[in-house]
Amino acid sequence: MKIYWTKINKIVEETSEIKTYFLDCPEDFTWEEGSHTHLGLKGFNAGDKPNRSLVRHMSISTMPYENTIGITTRIREKCSEFKTVLRNLDVGDEVAIFKTHSNVPLKREGKNVYLLSSGVGLATFRPLVLDYLEQADNVKQIHSLNVDSTRDFLFPDIFKTVAEKNFTAEFVDNRKDYYEEVKSLAQDKEGLFYIVGSDEFLVENIEVLQELGIKPEQIMLDKRENQLSNFFKENLTV
Questions:
Q1: For the chain, which has fewer Cβ within 10 Å, the N-terminal or C-terminal residue?
Q2: What's the pLDDT tens digit per position in 183-216?
Q3: Domains in the chain, please, with CATH?
Q4: CA distance 37 to 196
Q5: DSSP assignment letter at 105
Q6: Long-range CB contacts (within 8 A, 24+) of 104-108
Q7: Cβ neighbours, 10 Å, residue 64
Q8: Dist CA 145 CA 178 (whole Å)
Q9: In whole numbers, what is the pLDDT of the chain averaged over residues?
Q10: Alpha-carbon distance 4 to 19, whole Å?
Q11: Helix (H, G, I), strand (E, B) or coil at 182
């Protein structure tokens, strides 16, 4: 396993609780849309065993052509040890990145794509949307639906409806309206549904979609293949 130590080159306050940490790109570090990485803070590998409280699985919210690795995360006033340390880092400080992988690249199968997310989960979808807006081949359209009770919606410069590109961005501030819209979107029995959020959020969405006839192979999660069985009903194979 290769560990890349790199520096923070910029910190942007996206909303009152959400920050993006922009990291220098190591020379041979590569990734694709929908990628996540493990972010390690100083001291995480100092002892005989890794200090797991100083490591988190994080989505990369930028595309390689942006020449920076973006890590977007919510940091509340009361937070974990990891986020407390992260909150106190500044430009020039070093962090580690390793075990980078994409579970949710953009599928180009000539179908409609629906991006379902909660809160900062939208960060995972930012690169997919940029990739689509740059090159729409073999994707009919993309519809993004995000629910965030804070109403402090993320990336409004990217997540805005562009009719000529067949891209629609929709935000709601409560779960009731959100699931009503999910049910409406699920009328498309051929669509591809990407879901990002808490495990509870994933399970709720999958139940709604499956009840409406959406098959597991149409549902994409930011999870490793060996984790997928934890989210789908036992009588359905993934």
A1: N
A2: 999 999 999 999 999 999 999 999 999 999 999 9
A3: 4-102 (2.40.30.10), 111-230 (3.40.50.80)
A4: 15
A5: P
A6: 104/34, 104/128, 104/194, 104/196, 104/220, 104/221, 104/222, 105/32, 105/33, 105/34, 106/33, 106/34, 106/131, 106/132, 106/139, 107/192, 107/220, 108/137, 108/138, 108/139
A7: 16
A8: 8
A9: 93
A10: 22
A11: helix
- Strand 219-221 with 139-147, pairing: unpaired
**pLDDT single digits (tens) 59-86:** 999 999 999 999 999 999 899 999 999 9
Angle (CA) 222 226 227, round 5°? 50
Amino acid symbol at 143: H
Count CA within 13 A, CB hemisphere, residue 131: 21
**């689509």: which residue's tokens?**
132
**What is the residue type of 61?**
S
Contact between 41 and 82 under an 8 Å Cβ cutoff? The reply is yes
Per-residue pLDDT band at 226 (split at 50, 70, 90): low
> Alpha-carbon distance 208 to 237, whole Å?
17
Spatial strand order in the sheet of 55-59: 55-59, 35-40, 94-102, 4-13, 18-23, 69-74
- Quote the Cα angle for 220-226-232, to 5°: 55
